[in-house]
Amino acid sequence: MNESKSFSTWEDAVVWLRQQPNQNNLVADCYYDDPLLSAANRYWNSEEWNAVKTKLNNNTGKALDIGAGRGIASYALAKEGFEVTALEPDPSSIVGAHAIRALATESNLPIHVVENFSENLPFSNDTFDVVFARAVLHHTNNLETACSEFYRVLKPGGIFLGIREHVISKLNDLDLFLEQHPLHQLYGGEHAYLLKQYVSAINQAGFNTIEVISPWQSPLNFAPYTLESLKTELVTRSGIKQPVLNRSLRALLDAPIVWPLLRSILDKIDHRPGRLYSFIAKRN
Length: 284
Known about the structure:
Elements: H1 10-18, H2 24-29, H3 36-44, H4 47-56, E1 62-66, H5 72-79, E2 83-87, H6 97-107, E3 111-114, E4 128-134, H7 143-153, E5 154-168, H8 173-180, H9 184-187, E6 193-194, H10 195-205, E7 209-213, H11 219-222, H12 227-237, H13 243-253, H14 258-269, E8 275-282
Parallel strand pairs: 1-2, 1-4, 2-3, 4-5, 5-6
Antiparallel strand pairs: 5-8, 7-8
């Protein structure tokens, strides 16, 4: 990617990115491809969303999709039967509020769009059964305030899902992460926090029980890889050239006891700047 490129809006950055033939995979992995309805439906059928559904615990009712972007998660929530409010401050017809409205109209799904920021939610207390935030917390200007707002607008018993959040191991890692992030080079706006900062902000908001999901634990974090394609990729990156050894290693990873053990090891030694964690919390 040409790192000298810089754009004044996220829409311009995405438009340029979609015009680069060598970035087709990145565009598809980020669900920036058109038609939007097809991209949204692909997300709804993804391993990542299947993992989300297990955390929703068959909840229904009203859902708030924070930083909804193009609306792929709003679409998925609505397909699951939720009445969805999509919060998105960018008015863009490609990556923002206008795109979500068009998606809602085309799909005939109950998605209402509000153009606002997460630190000052324009909703009454105890409004939503689910607050969903995909790759949002690391963009917030005030992490603690945003989490407090999520707690405030949740009904008692409601669920907060903060998924795919960038984590750094030490503050000095932030610059390295930003240098390596392909989309940050185009527009900026990326950030990452220490794991303890996310957990502290969620705790301080009032959530007592927090499930922390590590990078290797779930497709919530390692999508677009599936578990099977992730194992295959690990074998490829092992550098083993002999086909027989490759097949043996791949079969070993499928053994019931091996993958959980390896995953535990990887979680302990993985210190990549910007690796992804997810957080599930319930309001009492």
